[in-house]
Q: What sequence folds into this?
């Protein structure tokens, strides 16, 4: 199995402008992510950005950059532009590693690529982890999912699913025994051919309602394989508080 890693890195983050260039223990965030991806089995690691400042920073540490348009609605659209510019074969597997996860485990990158390669019925592979607290279960910023027995996703939602009706009628302060909700981890593996289809589809109604672009694949009949991550995946960096927490982990 061979695959490439693409790291989308937008400078103009709404919550943390300049995020890819934020310093973490003497290195930029994008370099930290790139170095973790370099420890995976990927043949190439490419940073996809629309900003020359990010491109210059990546070039300074010897990384590969692909300049992309600035009007992409999602990281998935940006990945497709990279695949098209590189002329990748339709069967080529690309792993989208978020540019704000400087502690992403390399084993998890390998896992999601291997899962897609082994599950030919799926067009996309992604990962999940157990939800341990009722607070996380009820948090709309944490995306939940439910799957079929074969590991293919049935639905993703910001709502708490599956809803333990009878148990929560009695007590909503704890997760009831026997209920095992899962949270979605935002790492994806795609085949280039499906990315080419994705950018031609309009936003799906459920995607618009939930603000979850993976629902566009399900709406258009393309299965998403889900497995629990083989290692814990630390949270990414969305805010100044997240950045401070991340910096503390490197000292």
A:
């Amino acid at each position: 199995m061979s695959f490439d890693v693409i790291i989308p890195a937008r400078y103009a983050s709404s919550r943390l402008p300049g995020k890819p260039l934020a310093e973490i223990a003497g290195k930029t965030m994008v370099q930290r992510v790139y170095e973790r991806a370099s420890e995976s089995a990927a043949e190439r690691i490419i940073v996809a950005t629309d900003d020359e400042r990010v491109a210059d920073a990546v070039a300074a540490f010897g990384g590969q950059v692909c300049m992309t348009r600035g009007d992409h609605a999602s990281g998935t659209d940006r990945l497709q532009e990279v695949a098209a510019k590189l002329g990748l074969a339709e069967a080529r597997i690309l792993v989208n590693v978020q540019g704000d996860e400087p502690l992403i485990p390399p084993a998890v990158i390998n896992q999601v690529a291997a899962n897609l390669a082994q599950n030919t019925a799926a067009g996309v592979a992604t990962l999940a982890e157990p939800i341990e607290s009722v607070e996380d279960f009820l948090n709309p910023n944490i995306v939940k999912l439910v799957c079929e027995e074969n590991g293919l996703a049935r639905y993703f939602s910001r709502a708490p699913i599956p809803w333990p009706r009878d148990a929560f009628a009695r007590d909503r302060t704890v997760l009831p025994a026997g209920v095992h909700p899962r949270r979605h981890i935002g790492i994806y593996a795609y085949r280039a051919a499906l990315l080419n289809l994705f950018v031609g589809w309009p936003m799906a109604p459920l995607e618009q309602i939930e603000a979850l672009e993976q629902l566009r694949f399900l709406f258009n009949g393309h299965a998403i394989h889900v497995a629990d991550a083989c290692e814990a995946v630390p949270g990414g960096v969305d805010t100044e508080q997240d950045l401070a927490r991340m910096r503390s982990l490197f000292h």
